[in-house]
């Protein structure tokens, strides 16, 4: 059977539990000026393939990393006819004056957006066997993205542009177009987001890619997270497990709220999770002096429960993220944004993956010369010392 006949389309990939998904960035240093090499990306992809990951999501096409990722997959497929990896390519979208010293203008778009979309199209056309999804923007419509958010009309304009390219045979008809955004941006929260442009966008995308972060809500909406008096009889770890079950329910509710709104407008529109995750460390809002949400044990519980729920429901879940990336909060190495990976930067497997280390699925793999070993030198007692129960209500 030739590779072409076994190749999957977005329609076949999304919602398929045999094609697990993850968010991927290969940056090792605390700046994106130092790009991961093709050789480094190939190492990472072999590690992810061992995890049975077959779809990776990337964010920006204006960094060389996106092109290098596609080249790395191309090389791995040539080296091994059974290697299979697909890409959800993210085109970054922002408003006029974003990331400058000028006031962001949320009612006009950046001139760069057109360049970003053109590059996404170029890469998708160069690698049609790999790029199966283009996402227009990342959290680009949500109002708390104060430095760069745009109106839904901007996302709609570019989604329609890409859909038109498909009709004109200038982009594969099988490629799915979406926007990857917060649950609220997709109508699952505040009614202020319920606009005609959002309705038109929902009709225009091939599927909805929504984000849900119970982790961040342990600080911003802590009601669900905090321990109540009726848990007084539980020990610390039982309180943690109870809170993580509530975190899972929180994510499920956000999904259902998006589904309720979206299906009123477009009844059969597929909805998948473009981003959700749990950081294993924080010295800020989510740490010892905050919501106490951050440790590897809680991350593992969330990873496992989200994988189980989404597989059962036929939902693709792009878990955030594969490897820790120190550039995310480059001024504070202990900031939570640097610790969402299920692997550390030096390739240690966090607690969510310890059982797979025991199964020796990574036995011949390395990251930057380091074998894939367990964090905490595999000492679970030591790991559990970092696990704190959520604060009490009131």
Strand content: 5-15%
The end-to-end span amounts to: 63 Å
Question: Biggest sheet, in brief?
Answer: 8 strands, parallel, barrel
SS elements, strand count:
12
Structural class: alpha/beta
From the spread of the alpha carbons, the general shape counts as globular
Write down the secondary-structure element order.
HHEHEHEEEHEHEHHEHHEHEHEEH
Sequence of strands across the biggest β-sheet = 1-2-3-6-7-8-9-10
Rg calc = 21 Å
Low-confidence spans: none
Helix content, binned percent: 25-40%
Helix run count: 13
Report mean pLDDT, rounded to a whole number. Answer: 97
Structural overview:
The chain is of the alpha/beta class and 394 residues long. Helix content is 37%, strand content 14%. It contains 13 helices and 12 strands. The strands form 3 sheets. The chain has an 8-stranded parallel barrel, surrounded by 6 helices. Strands 4-5 form a two-stranded antiparallel ribbon. A two-stranded antiparallel sheet has the order 11-12. Helix 6 (152-167) packs parallel to helix 8. It is globular and about 65 Å long.
What distinguishing features does this structure have?
37% helix, 12 strands, two-stranded antiparallel sheet, alpha/beta, 394 residues
Brief rundown of the structure:
This protein is α/β, with parallel strands linked by helices.
Topology:
Blueprint: H1 3-6, H2 10-13, E1 20-23, H3 38-50, E2 53-58, H4 64-79, E3 86-91, E4 95-96, E5 105-109, H5 112-126, E6 131-138, H6 152-167, E7 176-182, H7 184-188, H8 196-204, E8 208-211, H9 214-220, H10 236-265, E9 271-276, H11 296-313, E10 317-319, H12 354-358, E11 366-367, E12 370-371, H13 380-384
Parallel strand pairs: 1-2, 1-10, 2-3, 3-6, 6-7, 7-8, 8-9, 9-10
Antiparallel strand pairs: 4-5, 11-12
Helix pairs in contact: 3-4, 6-8, 10-11
